[in-house]
Amino acid sequence: AQKVTQAQTEISVVEKEDVTLDCVYETRDTTYYLFWYKQPPSGELVFLIRRNSFDEQNEISGRYSWNFQKSTSSFNFTITASQVVDSAVYFCGGGTNAGKSTFGDGTTLTVKP
Amino acid sequence: KAGVTQTPRYLIKTRGQQVTLSCSPISGHRSVSWYQQTPGQGLQFLFEYFSETQRNKGNFPGRFSGRQFSNSRSEMNVSTLELGDSALYLCASRLESGYTGELFFGEGSRLTVL
Predict the structure, then answer these.
(1) What span, in angstroms and rounded, lies between the C-alpha atoms of A63 and A83?
(2) In whole angstroms, what is the distance from residue B44 CA to residue B46 CA?
(3) How many other β-carbons are positioned within 10 Å of the β-carbon of residue A52?
(4) Do A110 and A40 touch, CB atoms closer than 8 A?
(5) How many residue pairs from chains A and B have C-beta atoms closer than 8 A?
């Protein structure tokens, strides 16, 4: 079974601050994938990133960056120079070949102007 | 191209009734998954359908069922509704089942059971 832990339930920052959302994905599987989704108030989950367990290369996309460390089972997400529009619930999760994705409980990010 | 479409967006039912939710995946996507989202339990996987066959199933009672049609559209049904079934039900599609491809989610159907 997989376990996803997002230790931060809520985070509040002021606009332009950098913020890191933590995620720990625990599984006995040697091959798996990880992902992050954003859920704005409208409710629709928006895909942000997906990584395979054998690819530990960090990824940067604009103001977003992800750091995957297999040794610590962490897949952290950093937003640089946060903006009000970044306010949302962010979900981390993962899955295996079974195609059954497991989500964390989410981190609610509030970016204040 | 059009995203994942879920209907209805909102509905209210009473205990003991049954409900059917519909999901139209992105054109060309053959895998459809359903998730239940509640404040207390987060996002819980219900089941996944691919080519009209259930591929995976989560830990939900038999009152929760689903099916997929030849055009990849999917429906889920909840019978004998309970108060605890109040939730946002999210449908997600992807090209294929299994390991590859990210999930594309719809806006969900918000069910309230009174």
Answers:
(1) 10
(2) 6
(3) 13
(4) no
(5) 53
φ, ψ for residue A50 (rounded to 5)? Answer: -140, 135
Q: Given a cut of 80, is residue B39 above it in pLDDT?
A: yes
Interface mutation vs chain B, best among A10, A35, A44, A51, most B CBs within 10 Å: A44
The residues pairing with A111 across neighbouring beta strands, listed in sequence order, are A13
The 10s digit of each residue's pLDDT in A20-62 is 999 999 988 888 889 999 999 888 899 998 888 888 778 888 9
Peptide bond into B8 cis (omega under 30): yes
Give the C-alpha separation, B69 to B50, whole Å.
10
Question: Shortest Cα distance from B35 to chain A (angstroms)?
Answer: 10
In this structure, the number of other CB atoms found within 10 A of the CB of residue B42 comes to 18
